[in-house]
Write a structure and sequence with these properties.
The complex is a heterodimer. Chain A is of the alpha/beta class. Chain A has one domain: TIM Barrel, CATH 3.20.20.70. Chain A is built from ten helices and twelve strands. Chain A has helices spanning 32-41, 56-70, 86-95, 104-108, 111-120, 160-170, 191-200, 214-222, 233-236, 242-251, and strands spanning 5-13, 16-21, 24-30, 47-51, 77-80, 99-102, 125-133, 143-147, 154-159, 174-179, 205-208, 228-231. The two termini of chain A are 13 Å apart. Mean pLDDT of chain A is 89; it is low at 20-28. Chain B is α/β, with parallel strands linked by helices. Chain B has one domain (3-203): Rossmann fold, CATH 3.40.50.880. Chain B is built from six helices and 13 strands. Chain B has helices spanning 13-22, 33-38, 50-59, 63-72, 81-84, 190-203, and strands spanning 3-6, 27-30, 42-44, 76-79, 89-90, 96-97, 104-108, 117-125, 142-148, 150-154, 160-166, 168-176, 179-182. In chain B, β5 and β6 (96-97) form a beta hairpin. The longest helix of chain B is centred in the last third of the chain and has 14 residues, at 190-203. The radius of gyration of chain B is 15 Å and the shape is globular. Chain B starts with a strand and ends with a helix. Classes of the chains: A alpha/beta, B alpha/beta. Chain A binds chain B through residues 1-5, 40, 45, 70-72, 74-76, 93-94, 96, 98, 120-124, 173-174, 202-204, 227-228, 257, and chain B through 11, 14-15, 18-19, 21-22, 47-48, 114-122, 143, 145-147, 165-166, 187-190, 193-194.
C-alpha cells in the first residue's frame, strides 16, 4: 500500500536553517546538511529545503548545501524558493535536488511550469500555492492565491482551486497547499482548502502551514485527503519526533512507513 | 574493475552514482558501448519516458551492447525506466518497441488512481525469489520510493521476483539469471535502497 508521507521542511538562509512564525522572526535551528541526515535517520519520507534568500551569492551557498546533502542523504529532496527560470531549476536538480518547487514565479509566468515539466518531467515540478480565505462568513468558502508571502503578501486575483487545476494541466506533478490563515499559528491545516484542492486535481497534494500537533497531521491526511504533510517547527525544536507522528498516525490506521 | 553506469542523459544518473559511491562501489560513468561490454557489471538508470530512453540508447549505439552483456551473463541492474525498456514494447505516448529482453509490455497505471504513483510502497517477494541475494537483509514487505506512471506487465511469471500493489499488483522487481531490475528508486529509498545496491554489487562480485 502507498504510504502517506511526513516531510520536514527546512527554511534555509545563507546556508543555515531558520524557521519563522507566520514567516517572520527567523530563529537559527542549525546546519541543513546535519539536520537533513538526522531527519533521514529519524524516518523522514522526503525533505524540503526552502531557500528564503534570493541574492545570487546566497543562491550559490544553497547549491553547495544541496550538493553536500545529496552526497549524504538518500531520500527525495525538494528545493524551492526564488527559482525563476528553467536554468535555475536545472542548477538545483544538477546539484542533487530531485524536485523543484515554484510559487510566485509560476504565478508571474505559468509557462515556467510547462517548460520545467517538459525538460525535466512532471515528477520534478512541484507547484506551491499560498492561499487565504476571501469569502464573507455567510458565503461558501473561497480562497485566493497570494504571492510574495514572506514580507508583503500580494493578492493575485487567482482562485486557489482553479490555479491548482491549471498548474496540473501545465505539468505540475505535485501541489503543495499552504494556508496563510493557518501558517505559523499552530492551529491546524485549513481542511476545507485541502479537500477542495484534493478533489480538483489528480496529482498528490501536500498539506503545509499551521501544524501544531500530530492530531493536525491526522486531520490533514484523513479529513483533508492530503497525500503528505509538510511541517517545520513542530520537528525542529523537538516538540515531536517524526517517529512520534508516525506512531500516532499508524495507531489510527493511516498507512505510514515506519 | 569498475561497474559501468550507462550515461544516456537519464535524470537520475547522478543520484545513482552518488548512492553507488556512498556504498563504496567502483564505478565508471560511460556511454561507450565497448566500455559497457567490457564491464564486470552494468547499471542502467532511468527517469522519464521509454520512447526517449530507447531513442537515446539507439543514438548512442548502446542497444546491441545491452543485449550482449545480458546474454553473456554480466550482472545487470535496471532502475525505473531502465527496467521498463527491457520489455518487448511500451504503450507510453503510442505503442513502440523496446529492447525485447524480457517478455511483456509497459502499461499505464490504472486511471482511477493518482498517476504518477509518488511515494513509498511495499515490495513483496514472490516465494521463489524471497531468498535471492539481492534481498539479503531486507525484510519482505519493506517500503521503497516509487515515482512512475507506467509499469512492466511481464509475460513470464518466473521473471517476477517481487510485486507492489497500486490499484493492481505489478512487478516491482524482475530477476532472470544475471539480470535484475527494479521499478522503484533504490538511490532514493534510504537505508534499504542502499542495502539493495550493496547486495547487487556483492552479487555481481565487484564489492
Amino acid at each position: 500500500m502507498l504510504k502517506r508521507r511526513v516531510i520536514p521542511c527546512l527554511d534555509v538562509k545563507a546556508g543555515r536553517v531558520v524557521k519563522g512564525v507566520a514567516f517572520l522572526n527567523h530563529r537559527d535551528a542549525g546546519d541543513p546538511v546535519e539536520l537533513a541526515a538526522a531527519y533521514d535517520a529519524g524516518g523522514a519520507d522526503e525533505l524540503v529545503f526552502y531557500d528564503i534568500t534570493a541574492s545570487s551569492d546566497e543562491r550559490d551557498i544553497m547549491i553547495d548545501v544541496v550538493e553536500r546533502t545529496a552526497a549524504q542523504v538518500f531520500i527525495p529532496l525538494t528545493v524551492g524558493g526564488g527559482l525563476r527560470t528553467v536554468e535555475d531549476m536545472y542548477r538545483m536538480l544538477r546539484a542533487g535536488a530531485d524536485k523543484v518547487s515554484i510559487n510566485t514565479a509560476a504565478v508571474l509566468n505559468p509557462q515556467l511550469i510547462e517548460d520545467g515539466a517538459r525538460r525535466f518531467g512532471s515528477q520534478c515540478i512541484v507547484l506551491s500555492i499560498d492561499a487565504r480565505r476571501v469569502n464573507a462568513p455567510d458565503e461558501p468558502p473561497r480562497w485566493q492565491v497570494f504571492t510574495h508571502t514572506g514580507h508583503n503578501p500580494r493578492p493575485t486575483g487567482l482562485d486557489a482551486v482553479e490555479w491548482a487545476r491549471r498548474g496540473v494541466d501545465l505539468g505540475a506533478g505535485e501541489i503543495v497547499i499552504n494556508s496563510m490563515d493557518a501558517d505559523g499559528v499552530g492551529s491546524g491545516y485549513d481542511l476545507d482548502l485541502l479537500r477542495a484542492i484534493a478533489d480538483a486535481v489528480g496529482v498528490p497534494v501536500i498539506a503545509s502551514g499551521g501544524v501544531g500537533s500530530p492530531e493536525h497531521m491526522y486531520a490533514g491526511l484523513v479529513e483533508g485527503c492530503a497525500d503528505a504533510v509538510l511541517a517545520a517547527s513542530i520537528f525542529h525544536f523537538g516538540a515531536y519526533t517524526i517517529q512520534d507522528v508516525k506512531r500516532y498516525l499508524a495507531e489510527r490506521g493511516v498507512p505510514v512507513r515506519m | 574493475m569498475s561497474i559501468a553506469v550507462i550515461d544516456y542523459g537519464a535524470g537520475n544518473l547522478r543520484s545513482v552514482v552518488r548512492a553507488l559511491q556512498r556504498i563504496g562501489a567502483p564505478l565508471e560513468v560511460t556511454s561507450n558501448p565497448n566500455a559497457v561490454i567490457a564491464a564486470p557489471a552494468v547499471v542502467l538508470p532511468g527517469v522519464g519516458a521509454t520512447r526517449d530512453t530507447m531513442q537515446s540508447l539507439e543514438q548512442l549505439d548502446l542497444v546491441a551492447a545491452i543485449h550482449e552483456v545480458i546474454a553473456r551473463g554480466t550482472p545487470f541492474l535496471g532502475i525505473c525506466v531502465g527496467m521498463q525498456v527491457l520489455c518487448d514494447q511500451s504503450e507510453e505516448f503510442g505503442p513502440h518497441p523496446c529492447l525485447g529482453i524480457v517478455g511483456g509490455a509497459v502499461r499505464r497505471l490504472p486511471s482511477h488512481l493518482k498517476v504518477p504513483q509518488i511515494g513509498w510502497n511495499q515490495v513483496c517477494y514472490m516465494p521463489h525469489a524471497a531468498r535471492h541475494p539481492l534481498f539479503a537483509g531486507i525484510d519482505d514487505g519493506s517500503d521503497f520510493y516509487f515515482v512512475h506512471s507506467y509499469y512492466c506487465d511481464l509475460t513470464d511469471e518466473h521473471d517476477i521476483a517481487a510485486t507492489t500493489t497500486y490499484g493492481l499488483a505489478f512487478p516491482s522487481v524482475l530477476i532472470r539469471r544475471n539480470l535484475a531490475a527494479v521499478q522503484f528508486h533504490p538511490e532514493k529509498s534510504g537505508h534499504y535502497g542502499l542495502q539493495l545496491l550493496t547486495n547487487f554489487i556483492r552479487w555481481a562480485g565487484v564489492a
